[in-house]
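Q: Got a minute? One more chain.
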Amino acid sequence: MPYLTAQEVRDRARSDSLSDDDVFTDDYLEELVEEFEDIAERYCGVAFIPRTTTETRDVAGAASLILRPRITAVSAFTVDGIASTVYTLTEDVEALRIGVLPFTAHASGSIAVAYTHGYATIPATIRRACVEYVRACALRSDTGTGRDVIQQGFDGGSTRYSTPDWHAGRPTGYIEVDRLLNSNRDFPDQGVA
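A: Always. Here it is, folded:
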């Protein structure tokens, strides 16, 4: 299930240019939606729709395996390929806290967890950011429209455009899209703790 269909993008964008499906096919708009989904989820560290993921990690002794945020269900948990139910899902940190593992603290093992995570309903800000991203990318490819201007000099005639820079809080380089994405960025990176 994508964040938005091509028709939903057209309806929400309120742009006559996007309504021409000869210029902007459904497939093209849906590719841009998929591209935005990837950027949004990697940058914000959370899925904005329910997704199923399998994480496999090698750990030594008892450990915590921090999974993607907003876990809704664990469908499988194995230690060294053997199904196990020795885990606790803690809501406060949204991580799978592995309790007593079926091997000694000095041994190592492989843990695999299959789980569903993500928002049940896509936040309105993410839908809006998606529309803005698709509109900006589509129109840029069709008309050659430049990027957003973030600084302009009058005497020297220099202009500075917004370009993608994740470390500066600009994952897409489109000012409004980046503002909306930054308002949804509050989850830690995943890893073994």
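A: The longest helix spans residues 124-143.
Q: Perfect, thanks.
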